[in-house]
Amino acid sequence: MANFFVLPREIRDQIYELVLLDPEPIVPWFYYNQRNKLTRGLLRANKTVHHETSSLLYARNRFDLTIGTPENIASFFARIGRKNADHIRHIYVDFPRFLRVEPDNVTLYDVSAGILAKIQSSCVNLSTLTISRSCIFDMELNIEAQDNPKLATEALELVNTHFRAITSLQEIIVEV
Hints:
Elements: H1 9-20, H2 34-43, H3 47-60, E1 62-64, H4 70-87, E2 90-93, E3 98-102, E4 105-108, H5 110-122, E5 128-131, H6 133-146, H7 149-164, E6 171-174
């Protein structure tokens, strides 16, 4: 029987990429298919493989948290551990969700702000955040209904404050 570790690291890394990298964003709580069983099995093969693969899995895949509750998201980060969460670079979120969009009273739902705060505290190397299309549509409807251009400025300033709190963030992608 051949030993996998006699292969050069570059070859092992190519194999890991074929197994671990998904072209679509991963929804952590629905990602149970044949490929996921292989991925989890690979991570559990031994300590060396786990060490060589975990950063690749979390740093190079995109994670879709748009339908997650604060409990789902907290559970996901707890399950993968702090070290792996630190590797995550790209997340899809359903943010912002506004509770009120009124003159001098633009506020977010606590759940929406809480999800972003959990991501901020768990993913210290997050570089890219993709904002869902449905969330942007809802924000536009709220602002247009008020027919007050100042509200758009207030809403965007509030969102900007939350995004700037994630100091590692380099790019925000807004789906349209």
